[in-house]
Design goal:
The protein is an alpha+beta fold and about 100 residues long. Helices cover about 35% and strands about 20% of the residues. The protein has 5 helices and 3 strands, in the order αβαββααα.
């Protein structure tokens, strides 16, 4: 779900955004193009949607979908300890939203 759709459906939305160029792994991969964005519900802390455009996004979106399917709060992905430098560690900053 996009932020616009979430607002229209009555959710109180918090957004996280991160340019791919700010991530160390993107530099290792020499691919700085893209933006990661997440939408969470402030009342329930549930993930409402994500748009991931950048390296390895085709794999990262599976982690977001898994968390959504498990009804895990966004803090579950935010607070994980990820290897360095891998693209999934972007979730620590990406999900640092005010819920």
């Amino acid at each position: 779900m996009t932020a616009e759709k979430a607002y229209k459906r009555g959710f109180e939305v918090a957004e996280g955004k991160m340019p791919v160029a700010s991530h160390p792994r993107a530099h290792v991969l020499n691919d700085l193009r893209g933006l990661f964005k997440v939408i969470v519900d402030k009342k329930t802390d549930k993930i409402l949607g994500a748009s991931l455009f950048g390296p390895v996004s085709e794999e990262l979106i599976n982690l977001v979908k898994f968390a959504m399917d498990m009804n895990a709060p966004y803090t579950y992905l935010r607070d994980q300890m990820y290897n360095h430098p891998v693209m999934s560690e972007s979730f620590n900053g990406l999900f640092a939203v005010e819920g």
